[in-house]
Write the structure tokens for this entry.
Amino acid sequence: MFKATGGERVMEILNNILLLLISVTMLFPFLYIFSVSFSSISDVLNSDFLLWPKEWVTDAYTYILGSDQFIRSLWVTVYITVVGTFVNLVFTSTMAYSLTRNIIGQRLILFLVLFTILFSAGMIPTYMIVKETGLLNSLWALIIPVAISPFNLIIMTQFFKGIPEELTEAAIIDGANDIQIFTKVILPLSKPALAAFGLFYAVGHWNSYFSGVLYLNDPAKWPIQVILRQIVIVNEPNAALGGHAAMVEALPPPETVQMAAILLATLPILIVYPFLQKHFAKGVMLGSVKG
Amino acid sequence: MKKKHILISFLLLVLSFMLVACTDESTGEKEPEKEKETAGETEKAPDKEIDPFDHSEKYTITGMTFRFGDPPPLSSPGLDMINERFNVDYKPEIIPQGDYVEKSSAIVASGSMPDLVGFQAGDTRFYQWAEDGAFLPLDDYLSHYATLGKIPDYIYNSFKVNGKIYGIPRYSQPFPLTPIIRKDWLDKLGLEVPTNYEELEKIAIAFTKEDPDGNGKADTYGVAIGENINPNFNMGTYWDFNAWYHQNDNGDYIPGIISDGRKELVQFFANLYKEGAMTKDFAVLDWASTNNEFYSGKAGIFVGGVSGMSEEYFQGLLSINPEAELVAIPPFEAPDKSKGFTMGSGNSGMLALNAKLADDEGKIYRALELVDFGKTYFPAEEKNPQNADFDFFLGKEGTGYNMENGLPVQVPTFSSDGLSPSTYFLDNREQVPDDAKINYADSYKLPELKEMTVTLQEMFESNQMYIDPSHGVLSPTNQEKGTDLMQFLINEQSKMIAGQRPVSDWDALVKEYLAKGGEAIIKETNEGIKAKGYTERQWK
């Protein structure tokens, strides 16, 4: 057995304390948001509590959940996240797999993919494409233009390349065609990769905000992040421009409501994390070591 | 064998690309045809006088603008009411204010500018696009309308490009936001409402050190202030950073931000900062948090206006300090003996019409009728269901609003459920005529807020207001660099206030501003001021 020396033990204790402190500072904002959302407005204004509500009030939640809009936008986001992630995984994995087969033009296609990482079109050209393809004001506008992330595609290609060639050859001998090889051999072996990329994509969809504002005209279709921004970010009167802004235009709802909204919008995706955590850590390192 | 497959698939790919290209061309061809059709229609009746209020033809009218609150849904009873009344298929796109500039730019760049386009005050795209010929000159049309026709020329002047009016102003009342103070704290400490900056400084320090709320804790201070030195606490035009009041040695007007008055004010803030008598972290505090500093009873001096105050915020203050009483601070007498605040520009944004409407006069009239209605002013005694237009505007009593104590109160979901037509008008601010007698306090329910509003209105009405000569004057350099330069000055002055840069550096800062483009801004603006015929300072 390994036996720690005195110095090492002290080091370890210090280390643990340090790490503990760091994790507490990470937790602090969450606790603050949680406490403010359950406090009364006057307690918050008075700064009359420290990290724990003085008296428990659920006004903020009844206010938010009382409007259809918040719940509706939450559903929209869930829809985009679930459908979008599925689309992402199907398209990314099929394209990545075909790029591992020896096809002519493979290098060219890979080059084109890489090209989009370095030189991506700006907001206006993308907007025009979305408009011309008739996706404007459809939830698919938040899914199709981001169906394949070139970065994830390349990593997934590397991952597929890491699967021993012999497995594929064995399947061919057994009479499997390309699609069967992909679905019955490659995909089952790639579950950790799929989980990791699924999480990457899902978080991206969950947090997508600007494309929502840009492509969707109908407030009923807005994802939660747009609504959240409406609630939390103040519409600042531009003081530098000097406008005598009317005060009421610029005032957001009380802080308790803001915090409740943040909590409700973060919680669902937060809950997903622990379940996918182990894949996530593994997935980040995918393709980093070849051999 | 394999290679053949690939060749075929490659060919297929090329083919599909060609197909896409072809369909694109064919849709491209269709459009000119459509245009020809509409052009032909107007040609049929070249000489016939068009009745501006003839509703026989149905038009599709599109529009976009910004909104501070939540935009209404795309279909709703309120929208149906508008479509029926004006015989239109009205398609307004209402975009959250924070994203408006980006989204509207994308929409316009993609070639689909709507018929009506809204802008926030100070949006220079309005002038650029007007110069580029994207908008319709409105001079010939405005006189037909009850509200649009009565807006004074001096307001329209701000929206003239090359001598033609391109914009319809979004109303803002002439009274600015001016400093207010906690009267109950003054009384407690035996102090009077200040009449100059020395007294104001003493009061702010007393609010910090002498426990004006009497709770035995040092938890109060003087002036609530946030990022960009906002509010700016000018106690008269002499100190207003935004007004063109001071003159340089050549007799040219200069912007307030580089004037002696502003220097005095920056020195005043620097003194307060040293004493802890103003918000410590002002440089990073957003507007909502700045409001919080005051309405949570921490700070005793802030700003208020005659309209647009939040009753919720005021109620919040009263729940903490039930005896809170706010009064307006009247303007101070300046070193040059002038006294009074600066009058507002009279607009808080504008609306332009797409130049493509020129083909169809009937549509121009209908679009303007829509805009005109949205801006209708209803005097207080007509804000009730007996006035049919008002009843329509708010979506009928019992549905869009209810009468409570003689005041119309909109139902909470009037906008989110689209119950009121009012929420769909791109510009739905009433255009208050210059001669209207308004009792601003009438629009509030909270007695304490009413009282404060009365003190503000009395103060404004008993003092003259300065007419800023720079309103409606365009300076190309200002359009290009003005915002950045202003931000630069504000940042440097914030440093001076926080003691990171000595106030004695003032002259160097002004020189830097002039060299970076300020010189040209002053030159161009003064040319515009002279062209307007404004020479002596005017007060009203």
